Amino acid sequence: MFTRNLASLLSALVLLAFSAKAQLAGQTVKLQTVLGSGAGKCLAATNLANGAPVVIEDCGANATSLNSWTVSGGSGVRGQLSLTQYCLDVTDGVDADGTKLQIWLCGPRDTAQQFTPTSGSTIQWDGGSNNKCVDVTDGNLTNGNRVQVWDCDANNSNQKFNAIPVTFPAWFSVERDHTVGNCITAENAVNASVTIGTCTNDFAKQTFTDPTHTGQMVMYDNLCVTPLGNNLNDGTKLILAPCDANNAAQIWSHQTGIINSHSFAKACIDLTDGNMTPGNQLQVWTCTSLTSTTDNTNQDWVVSNHW
């Protein structure tokens, strides 16, 4: 058995770039087109009023009330993109190439306002044929160019946007999927086992922060979820160790679904032997969903972010 190279910088950079595009449920982001260079161009409303056009504008150094979109569903989930009480809206719900975008008061059942940010960096409109995406009209980056919907095309850069985070979760908890009331937990001590346990009101034992927004899972006074010996081989148990910004083994992609390592993408947090007994220490194991079409329920987690 070989030791996986934690210093795999290329792998880490690829995953960090991916995570920058993946919006969390409830997160506020600026939506920056991949077109152009420098500070870039972002989706913005011209003002906060019904019918205000959605256009391309300079992103600027700071987020504003006109370009800070709250993503209700998160990446891969149908939902709304809102500026306060106004939502991104396909004008009159017309399902046709070239229909322009506006904002309108958010209506939870308004099909003109249902969008899915995809893993391919597109924003798909789900209220019509499900084949229309947000599109920079003619690829024109002139400030004030009104944005439209157009047939989705994975190779069309006019339809690709990076999500630039404006807000980050204050804290998060992690619960096992497929069952109710089983959370990742740990005691307040260096080398404490990271285990499965019954979800309780003991806030500190079952909540995490990521203060540097890099992927750390921090508990208590700067203790991080870490594979024993910084080893990402199958079967390595998870512990709490002092957080180290230079330790790649402490960096995780902690979003709902699988929780995998940034330094070795195929290494996942895994419920050892599927054993739900409280106190069962979690381990690292090869991510089944990344290596086959089979789902491994021992690696399915629900991350609840709190803003």
TrEMBL record:
Recite the UniProt keywords alphabetically: Signal
Q: Which SUPFAM superfamilies match?
A: Ricin B-like lectins (SSF50370)
Q: Check the record and name the Pfam families matching this protein.
A: Ricin_B_lectin
> Which ranges carry the Ricin B lectin domain?
29-164, 168-304
Which InterPro entries does the record match to this protein?
Answer: Ricin_B-like_lectins, Ricin_B_lectin
Enumerate the CDD domains for this protein: beta-trefoil_Ricin-like
**Signal peptide range in chain numbering:** 1-22
Q: What is this protein called?
A: Ricin B lectin domain-containing protein
- The organism named in the record is Mycena venus
